[in-house]
Specification:
Strand content: under 5%
Number of helices: 21
Number of strands: 0
Structural class: mainly alpha
Oligomer: single chain
Helix content: over 70%
C-alpha cells in the first residue's frame, strides 16, 4: 500500500497531469479524425450513396444515447481513470478490427456500421468520465481553462486531419491511416497511466444516490429536477437547442443553394468555422472566462445570435459567411467551457458521472427531431414563400434576397431572434441568473460529508445549504 501511495505521489497531478492527458487525447483524436476522413471516402467509393453515409451517423448516435445513462452510473461506481481507459480501449478494438479486415481484403461497408456502434458506446463513457475527472484533477478556479483545452480536442483535429489524411492516403493507403490511429490510442492510454486521477470524496448526495444500477441512473435525473436552478438551466439550454435547430440543419443546404453548389466555397466556410473554434479554445484555455460564468454564457450567446445566426442568414457573400462562422465557432468553446465549469463546480464530484449523463440526454433530446423540422420548414414553407410574388416575399427579399437559399436565410434570422428572446428570459430569471450563488460549490458539499456526524449546528447548516440548493 505504501509503495502504491508513493507511486501516486510521483505521478503528475493538477494542471500538469491534466495537460499530459490532454496532449495524449489530442494526438489520438487527430488520428481518429484522419481515419474518419479516409473511411468516409472509402464508404462513398463503395456505395455512392448519401443515405448509406448518413446511416453511419445513426449507427453512432443511437447506441451513444441509449447507453449514456448507464455509462454515467458506471463512471461513478468505478475508478475514473479506469473508465477513461475503457472508452479508449473500446475505440481501439473497433479500429483494430477495421484495420485487420482492410489488410486482409475482407472489409465491407457494413463493417463500418458495426465499428460506429462501438465508437458510440466508447464515447458514451468518455464524455462523463473526462468531464468528471476534471473536477478532481484541477482546482475549481482552473475549470474554465481546462474545459477550453478540452474543446481544442474537438476543434483542432477538424482543421488538420483532412489535410494530413489527404496527403498520407496516396502514400500509406487506408491501412496505414488506420494503423496510425491504433498506435495513437496507446499514446492516449499511456498518458493516462502516467498521471494521478484522484477519486472523488464521498458526499451526502453521493451516499443518498447509492443502490441498484437503475436507481443510480434515475438519481442523475432526480438530482437535476430537485434543484430549481439546474432545472431552469436545462430548460433554457433545451430551448436554445430547439431554436438553433431551425437553422443548424439547413446550414449546408443554404450555402450550397446560394453558391450554385460551389464545394470550394463551402469548404472555405467550414474551415473558417473550425479555425474559429480553435481560436476560441485557445482563448478559453488562457483566459478562463469572466469570474461570473453566467455572464460569459449570456454575452457569448448574444454575440452568436446576432452574428452567427442573423448576420449569417442575411449575408449573401462568402467572405461574410467565413467571418461570421469563424466568430460563431470561436464563441462555442467559450460559452460551453463556462457552462461546463458551472456544472463541475456545483455538482458533487461523486455523482457527476450520473448527473452529467442525465444532463446530456436531456440536452440532446432535440437532436433527432430538429433536422426533420428544419428541413420540412425549408422545403415546404420558407423557400416556397420567398418564390411567391407576395408582399411578404418582397419585404423579406430586402433582407435575404430572393434567389435559392433565401428562405433558409430567413430561418437563420428567426433562429437568432428566438435566441435573443430566450437569452432575455434567462437573464430575467433569478434561478438562472443567480445560480452560481444559489447553488453551493462541491467543496462545500465535501465539507458537509466530512462533518455530517458533527454538532447539531453543523447539521443545521447543512440543511440550510440543501434548502438553498433546491430554492
Amino acid at each position: 500500500m505504501q509503495a502504491n501511495s508513493q507511486f501516486s505521489s510521483n505521478q503528475p497531478k493538477g494542471m500538469a497531469g491534466f495537460t499530459l492527458v490532454f496532449a495524449g487525447q489530442l494526438v489520438s483524436v487527430l488520428a481518429s479524425n484522419m481515419s474518419g476522413f479516409g473511411l468516409s471516402i472509402w464508404m462513398f467509393q463503395q456505395t455512392g450513396s448519401a443515405t448509406a453515409m448518413s446511416a453511419m451517423q445513426v449507427s453512432f448516435i443511437l447506441p451513444f444515447m441509449l447507453i449514456t445513462p448507464f455509462a454515467g452510473a458506471l463512471v461513478d461506481r468505478h475508478n475514473r481513470k479506469l473508465m477513461m481507459m475503457v472508452s479508449d480501449l473500446v475505440a481501439v478494438l473497433a479500429t483494430a478490427g477495421l484495420l485487420l479486415l482492410q489488410a486482409t481484403g475482407q472489409l465491407h461497408f457494413w463493417h463500418l456500421y458495426v465499428a460506429n456502434v462501438f465508437y458510440g458506446l466508447g464515447n458514451a463513457f468518455q464524455w462523463p468520465a473526462y468531464s468528471a475527472a476534471i473536477s478532481t484533477m484541477v482546482p475549481k478556479e482552473q475549470y474554465g481553462r481546462a474545459n477550453g483545452m478540452m474543446s481544442l480536442i474537438d476543434s483542432g483535429p477538424s482543421v488538420f486531419a483532412p489535410i494530413l489524411a489527404g496527403a498520407l492516403l496516396p502514400i500509406v493507403k487506408l491501412s496505414g491511416i488506420l494503423a496510425i490511429d491504433v498506435l495513437t490510442f496507446f499514446i492516449a492510454i499511456g498518458a493516462l497511466l502516467c498521471v494521478h486521477v484522484p477519486q472523488p470524496e464521498k458526499t451526502v448526495e453521493g451516499q443518498a444516490g447509492k443502490g441498484s444500477l437503475m436507481k443510480e441512473i434515475a438519481f442523475g435525473f432526480k438530482y437535476i429536477f430537485e434543484r430549481k436552478s439546474l432545472r431552469v438551466y436545462l430548460t433554457i439550454i433545451l430551448s436554445l437547442n430547439l431554436a438553433g435547430g431551425i437553422s443548424n440543419a439547413v446550414y449546408t443546404p443554404m450555402i450550397l443553394a446560394r453558391t450554385n453548389q460551389n464545394s470550394v466555397t463551402f469548404g472555405a466556410v467550414l474551415t473558417a468555422s473550425a479555425i474559429g473554434a480553435v481560436a476560441g479554445g485557445l482563448i478559453m484555455s488562457a483566459w478562463g472566462g469572466f469570474k461570473k460564468r453566467i455572464l460569459t454564457m449570456l454575452s457569448g450567446w448574444a454575440i452568436f445570435a446576432v452574428i452567427g445566426e442573423m448576420l449569417f442568414g442575411i449575408s449573401r457573400w462568402p467572405v461574410v459567411w467565413m467571418a461570421t462562422t469563424a466568430i460563431a465557432g470561436m464563441i462555442f468553446p467559450i460559452t460551453n467551457g463556462a457552462a461546463q465549469s458551472i456544472w463541475q463546480s456545483k455538482v458533487a464530484p461523486d455523482v457527476q458521472g450520473r448527473v452529467f449523463s442525465a444532463r446530456k440526454t436531456i440536452a440532446w433530446f432535440a437532436e433527432p427531431i430538429m433536422p426533420l423540422v428544419a428541413g420540412a420548414l425549408a422545403d415546404f414553407v420558407t423557400e416556397p414563400a420567398m418564390k411567391a410574388q407576395t408582399p411578404f416575399a418582397q419585404v423579406a427579399s430586402h433582407l435575404v434576397g430572393s434567389g435559392p437559399g433565401s428562405g433558409m436565410g430567413l430561418q437563420f434570422i428567426l433562429s437568432g431572434l428566438l435566441y435573443l428572446i430566450l437569452i432575455t428570459i434567462a437573464f430575467l430569471t433569478p434561478a438562472f441568473r443567480n445560480m452560481e450563488t444559489l447553488l453551493p460549490d462541491h467543496d462545500q458539499m465535501k465539507k458537509v460529508a466530512e462533518t455530517q456526524t458533527g454538532t447539531a449546528i453543523e447539521i443545521q447548516a447543512t440543511q440550510v445549504q440543501e434548502a438553498q440548493a433546491t430554492a
